[in-house]
Amino acid sequence: MNYCESFHVRTADDVKAFFHHLVYERKVNFHPDDDFADYISREDKSPTFSATEVSLYNRLMEESFDVCENAKVDIYEIGLNELRNSFMA
Questions:
Q1: Does residue 83 belong to any structural domain of this protein?
Q2: DSSP 8-44
Q3: What domain count does the chain have?
Q4: Which of 40, 43, 66, 83 has the fewest CB within 10 Å, making it most exposed?
Q5: C-alpha–C-alpha distance, residues 73 and 78, integer Å
Q6: 61 with 31: CB under 8 angstroms?
């Protein structure tokens, strides 16, 4: 899925889909607490994400935290499950 400025995380399923996107499509070993501006390429140390993507993904992560808190779902468990599943795929 391609995420754009008009997309918002509204449900726990949206959180799972966003995390799936990060792991499987963007190939990022991420942590929910990290700022997307901090991700760099191992090869050449260039930023992984553009400034626009950093802004968008940070907003989506903030929304993910809000959704998980309201739904009483552990955001870290969702992220860990996506990462764990990617290693078993």
A1: yes
A2: ---SHHHHHHHHHIIIIIS-----TTS-GGG-B-TTT
A3: 1
A4: 43
A5: 8
A6: no
Structure tokens at 56: 């968008």
Domain extent, residue 62, equals: 12-88
Distance of alpha carbon 74 from alpha carbon 55, whole angstroms: 23
Bridge partners of 47, per DSSP, are 40
Helix and strand numbers (H, E) in the chain are 3, 0
Whether pTM > 0.85 for this model: the answer is yes
Per residue of the chain (89 residues), give pLDDT as tens.
789 999 999 999 999 999 999 999 999 999 999 999 999 988 999 999 999 999 999 999 999 999 999 999 999 999 999 999 888 86
Q: Reduce the DSSP state of residue 47 to 3 states and report it.
A: strand
Evaluate whether 23 touches 86 at the Cβ level (below 8 Å): yes
- Is 62 part of a structural domain of the chain? yes
User: Scanning the structure block, which residue is given the tokens 């907003």?
Assistant: 59
